[in-house]
Amino acid sequence: MNGLVSAVGPLVASIPSPSQHTWYLGPFPLRAYALAILAGIAVAVWLTRKRWAERGGDPDDVLEIAFWAVPFGIVGGRLYHVISTPDPYWGPDGDPLKALRIWDGGLGIWGAIALGAVGAYIGCRRQKVSFAAFADALAPGLLLAQAIGRLGNWFNQELFGSATTLPWGLQISDQYLPAGYESGTLFHPTFLYELLWNVAAAFLLIYLDRRFRLGHGRVFWLYVLFYTLGRVWIEMLRIDTAELVLGLRLNVWTSILVGVGALIAFIVIGRRHPGREETVSLDAAEPEQAGAGRPDPGH
């Protein structure tokens, strides 16, 4: 086979990849990756508005907070991707200007969450609402947004897994095949694995939140835990270029460490603050806290 990985079988049952990822309205390109990100944001905002209202918040708060969180998250996601996958940008044949081409794909979830949280915190402070309560309302929507966003990877024919003989193997066009693989080789559709995992986790979060009336950030930390559990095994299937630490991909280690931290946070917060907040408004919470230490005027 001249050192090539042979095709793993005829394409009897497999998932085709889209033949096109960009369309044009006159001179303006419409890229599937960008559309998937925007659709995910729209779904997250829609669901978060409903969940925020159920917690006693003003649904319009969500749009105001998203105004800060979304751009912060996009910048953070791109920074993490460029730092954790530097070769295409800073390597021997890299092009630093490609770091600005977000529409070509490449957003790291950890950077998006970290910097997006900073933006959300700013928005929450401006709206005078609890950041922890908002994070709880947002968590299932984040999972759905990530699920929809993975469709962009499908259109771009990127971030797929190793070769497979499974009937749901993913077809990859010859121009996107990694070096050493023959035409017709099927690959694990990791975009689909993560999509299904995230959707299932989102519904599980909603159920657990309603069943146990979780609050004070515990829904968010469960989101982090559920996501990292899936990301570990999905990441280990991928064959795209990645930084390795002690033989494992950087994102595997990140998922393990963040997942452990999320579990600890969930347990500690649950012991300190069982149940859910009485109010999501900081203005309403402050008088209650101030009044808690005052003597009863009737005594």
UniProtKB/TrEMBL annotation:
GO cellular component assignments: plasma membrane
Pfam families, per database record: LGT
Enzyme's top EC category: transferase
Pathway per the UniProt entry: Protein modification; lipoprotein biosynthesis (diacylglyceryl transfer)
Highest taxon in the source lineage: Bacteria
This protein's record includes keyword Cytoplasm: no
Protein name (Swiss-Prot/TrEMBL): Phosphatidylglycerol--prolipoprotein diacylglyceryl transferase
Region (Disordered): 279-299
Subcellular location: Cell membrane
GO molecular function, one term: phosphatidylglycerol-prolipoprotein diacylglyceryl transferase activity
Function: Catalyzes the transfer of the diacylglyceryl group from phosphatidylglycerol to the sulfhydryl group of the N-terminal cysteine of a prolipoprotein, the first step in the formation of mature lipoproteins.
Positions that bind a 1,2-diacyl-sn-glycero-3-phospho-(1'-sn-glycerol): R150
